[in-house]
Amino acid sequence: IVSIKQVTKIYPMGKTQVQALNGVDLSIEKGEFLAIAGPSGSGKSTLLNLLGCLDVPTEGTVVIDGQDLAKLSEHARATLRRQKLGFIFQGFNLIPVLTAFENIEMPLRLKGENNPQRVWEALEAVGLKEHAQHRPAELSGGQQQRVAIARALVTDPLIVLADEPTANLDSKTGEAIIELMKKISLEKGTTFIFSTHDAKVMSKATRMVSLTDGRIEESIVH
Amino acid sequence: IVSIKQVTKIYPMGKTQVQALNGVDLSIEKGEFLAIAGPSGSGKSTLLNLLGCLDVPTEGTVVIDGQDLAKLSEHARATLRRQKLGFIFQGFNLIPVLTAFENIEMPLRLKGENNPQRVWEALEAVGLKEHAQHRPAELSGGQQQRVAIARALVTDPLIVLADEPTANLDSKTGEAIIELMKKISLEKGTTFIFSTHDAKVMSKATRMVSLTDGRIEESIVH
Ligand SMILES: Nc1ncnc2c1ncn2[C@@H]1O[C@H](COP(=O)(O)OP(=O)(O)OP(=O)(O)O)[C@@H](O)[C@H]1O
Ligand SMILES: Nc1ncnc2c1ncn2[C@@H]1O[C@H](COP(=O)(O)OP(=O)(O)OP(=O)(O)O)[C@@H](O)[C@H]1O
Ligand SMILES: [Mg+2]
Ligand SMILES: [Mg+2]
Fold first, then answer.
1. Which residues of chain B have pLDDT under 50?
2. Which of chain A's residues have a Cβ under 8 Å away from the Cβ of B38?
3. DSSP states of chain B
4. Residue B11 needs a FRET pair 20 to 30 A away by CA distance; which of A58, A104, A214, B22 works?
5. pLDDT for residue B179
6. Mutation for A interface: B21, B140, B147, B200, most A CBs within 10 A
7. pLDDT class for A16, splitting at 50, 70, 90?
């Protein structure tokens, strides 16, 4: 459902440049629960951004659900993201002036949908119903992370890209979240692509790839 | 070196209130390597903010290095923080317009010191020398976390308060960071107070307290 070929990403930095990804090939089937592991700075977030149509590679091709991203206009790419993808960002990226409820509702509204019931279901699923009216600054780190998770799931996307979704969660809460995602993936065929340092997340994955210095080292199928 | 008695923290939220901490007593000796564990939302960050003189309790007393915080003016509290404490915030809180070098240098400048050598040593210790001129947006999540860590250590503080310092680090990098902190604590007698979900950090602690719903449940000495 997502495939990237010979993808390279270089960030220009004044006189030098940072090679974040170097000739990466990766094919992901529909319904996979894929974990991307690797040391800090190895390129996981960069890879997720490319897989999630949030960034363009310096070289190589990215195809999502049959569409070659290089052939799409910026408008068509934005439509693809809104219709088919869900994101959990490493820094959460919640909107500070909106409540938890409003933050989670946002992707639905962007699709032109009005469905408060789905927002309440998402809040319930991540255990934050009593915190619906809190703004991010009034929430703990792990609560903010859970709002970001609920927001990614609320539109029932085809593919969810999750950048370290359990980094700020205790092991019990983190495990419950991964179980929830596993259940969604089995019931709805949703594809999950994680970047993670969490051994528990890796153990629940159907497959794991390792990134080191911008290169894929190995692919382990469970 | 830090002691809190019967500390309560209540956040008013419109018509309701959130009881983040409820009658907490805690005494911390100089040189301890203390881990505070507990589920998401249990009050760890709130407790660290009170122990680090960043916030005032609703009830109860906080004494740091012999000084009762309630008796100090805002100016005296700011001086105490600058002179004796180092912080690693859960969200890093780096200054976006400053480079890694400048972010780490900031606490030294706030003390009126000019010591680029110490900044380079701190960058080296967290493995980020080549990234000294990068700004936070040009760094990975774990690299930003390491800048935040270096910044907390650069002034050689009496007490370091670290809110989930390894959340965004792979296990090898995280372990190296905790080893570094252990070494500093043994060589310089620095007191480390962590909030953490990481079992590896907990295993290196000299003592661990568990927080649940704003109450301290148990104290385990290693
Ligand atoms: N500024 C605030 N206003 C209102 N409630 C708050 C505020 N800050 C924290 N809270 C609430 O206080 C409780 C404790 O929060 P705290 O951030 O201390 O938890 P934590 O243990 O650090 O959690 P995590 O592991 O998720 O970071 C939570 O229920 C949170 O929603
Ligand atoms: N906007 C940018 N400009 C310059 N360099 C960047 C930028 N974003 C990332 N990098 C660099 O690219 C490399 C890969 O970064 P990336 O964020 O993908 O790593 P990561 O595997 O997600 O790390 P972590 O586990 O710490 O989150 C790093 O060396 C980083 O410094
Ligand atoms: Mg990352
Ligand atoms: Mg916290």
1. none
2. 170
3. -EEEEEEEEEEEETTEEEEEEEEEEEEE-TT-EEEEE--TTSSHHHHHHHHTTSS--SEEEEEETTEEGGGS-HHHHHHHHHHHEEEE-TT----TTS-HHHHHHHHHHHTT---HHHHHHHHHHTT-GGGTT--GGGS-HHHHHHHHHHHHHTT--SEEEEESTTTTS-HHHHHHHHHHHHHHHHHH--EEEEE---HHHHHH-SEEEEEETTEEEEEEE-
4. A104
5. 95
6. B140
7. confident
